Amino acid sequence: MVYHLGLTKESLSGVRVALLPGDPFRVPKIAEEVMSTFGGSCSELAWKREFRTILVSGKVIVTSTGIGGPSTAIVMEELSMLGIDTFIRIGTTGAIREDIKPGSIVITSGSVRMDGASTHYAPPEYPALAHHELLSALIESAREHSLKFHVGITASTDTFYPGQERTDSFTGQLLRRFQGSTEELRRLNVLNYEMESATLLTLGSVFGLRCGVVSGVVVNRCHSSEIDKESLSQSENNAIKAGVGALKTLL
Ligand code: URA
User: Fold this and answer.
1) SS3 breakdown of the chain: % helix, strand, coil, rounded to 5?
2) Ligand 1 pocket, 160 CB below 6 A?
3) Strands 51-56 and 60-63: what pairing?
């Protein structure tokens, strides 16, 4: 049994695909969408700390990663050991480009590695790239569902506050390297901020496995730092539709 996830090879029944939200409470929502797309039933296999796993339709598992690189690296390590070779992160994100509205989705083609966990696996020059098959499956799925989507580079940070240049924090202070960082990233054609893709995509390439990332936009940072509560469930649902729809090509 792998230590953190509480899963065994037998419990996964030969499944090779994992959907990865951050939030354990989003796991059953994604399982529902998988069942309504592919039929079948689901069973909860384990829930330890932030790591909750449901097996769905006999085809996929949904496992929550918690927030950020370190816990995502644990999930990647332990699921890879159990035979999972395809990973789709279904998350949320803050857009930094003016035209990317809350409610839409971002499909990450590659990530700026502003995390720490990926540096334990590969040098900083190593790219964090989505696997080409997952990238095209996610784009195809977004088109099929007529979703408003954007494809491009994501900045993946280790902190929600200073790393994403938020000053609505306890001290309100930012290190010099983060002052103006959002504008700099915008000028580099980066679309959005989130906190797991750099780790996921780097480890995916290092391990020789397939990884992709789709995120629902829950705030536009050109206008606000606060999560847009009205579009939260719409963004979440759209990211889930795109992620689960991509399975049709992948399975
Ligand atoms: N997730 C992030 O990491 N940042 C945001 O602004 C929203 C979701």
Assistant:
1) 35, 25, 35
2) yes
3) antiparallel
With a CB cutoff of 8 Å and minimum separation 6, the contacts of 102 are 95, 217, 218, 219, 220, 228, 230, 231, 234, 235
Does residue 94 line the site of ligand 1, with CB under 6 A?
Answer: yes
Look up residue 97 and give its two tokens.
Answer: 């480009």
Bridge partners of 94, per DSSP, are: 193, 219
pLDDT per position in the chain (251 positions), as tens? 999 999 999 999 899 999 999 999 999 999 999 999 999 999 999 999 999 999 999 999 999 999 999 999 999 999 999 999 999 999 999 999 999 999 999 999 999 999 999 999 999 999 999 999 999 999 999 999 999 999 999 999 999 999 999 999 999 999 999 999 999 999 999 999 999 999 999 999 999 999 999 999 999 999 999 998 889 999 999 999 999 999 998 98
Looking from the CA of residue 218, the nearest atom of ligand 1 is 7
Q: Which of 89, 160, 228 to mutate to test the pocket of ligand 1 (most atoms within 8 A of CB)?
A: 160
Whole-number Å distance between alpha carbons of 103 and 214 = 13
DSSP H or E segment with residue 190: strand 190-194
According to DSSP H, which parts of 84-171 are helical? 132-144
134 lines ligand 1 (CB under 6 A): no
